[in-house]
Specification:
7 helices, Spore Coat Polysaccharide Biosynthesis Protein SpsA, Chain A, globular, alpha/beta, two-stranded antiparallel sheet
């Protein structure tokens, strides 16, 4: 397994837990022990660069200056597929290598790694460890009705350690095997055409064409924006 942790110095106005991108990286490293983690930092100030390098090692940090969310995601995808090269990234030769793309504002629970590996035994294509609260938006109109758990097309799968449910879309934090990423490359090129990746739209297109995306019940990770915390876990008090 390879992990690409994508970060930048760009500040959002969104209300989030008082957890920094560096804290999210430390959590990721703690949870995914003995896993190769590469940090791709877009327009990171020098003092922060050194802090990231201290966590993952200087040979696992790639500095870019694209100043753009979509362009940095495209860079990471191209890096995995060999279309971009860096002395700090070892080429992925195995087409079945599992790659986990992680944004800098996600927390993970302690059992994330074994669950993620096990999920790919379920004959699926994409995995999110985030049980998005949109799936349970009972009081509002769904962005995509297929997200609703009472949608008859949804399937619940049982893994070795967790239950999983099919989803129609997810965020830019997701896992996939290299060969599937290559097959679906044109979709991700479309995702990255605007400044902000159109994750919901592109993943919906992928699942519409037959790709299987699953997420766990309950969640194994969360986006740290307070309006979108994964349900049933006290992310504010638990120490991950």
């Amino acid at each position: 397994m390879r992990i690409i942790f994508r970060t930048s110095s760009h500040k959002h106005q969104k209300i989030k837990l008082k957890i920094s991108p560096l804290d999210c990286l430390k959590n990721l490293k703690k949870v995914f022990k003995n896993t190769d983690i590469t940090v791709v930092g877009d327009n990171i100030i020098k003092s922060q660069v050194e802090k990231y390098k201290k966590v993952v090692g200087k040979k696992n940090f790639i500095e870019i200056n694209l100043k753009n969310n979509s362009k940095s995601l495209q860079y990471c995808i191209d890096l995995v597929l060999g279309f971009q090269k860096s002395k700090n990234f070892k080429k992925i030769s195995n087409e079945n290598e599992l790659v986990y793309f992680v944004e800098n504002d996600y927390l993970h629970t302690i059992n994330s790694k074994k669950n993620l590996i096990d999920a790919f035994n379920l004959n699926i294509h994409y995995v999110s460890l985030y049980d998005h609260p949109d799936y349970y938006d009972n009081c509002k109109k769904f962005t995509d009705f297929r997200q609703a758990l009472d949608n008859p097309e949804k399937k619940v799968l049982v893994g070795k350690y967790s239950h999983w449910v099919t989803a129609s879309s997810t965020t830019c934090t997701f896992a996939v095997k290299k060969k599937i990423l290559l097959e679906d490359y044109s979709y991700f090129k479309k995702m990255c055409k605007r400044d902000i990746p159109r994750d919901q739209k592109i993943f919906t297109q992928l699942t519409n064409k037959g790709r299987l995306l699953i997420s766990p019940i309950p969640s194994l990770s969360t986006h740290i924006e307070t309006s979108y915390l994964a349900p049933l876990i006290n992310w504010k008090q638990n120490k991950f």
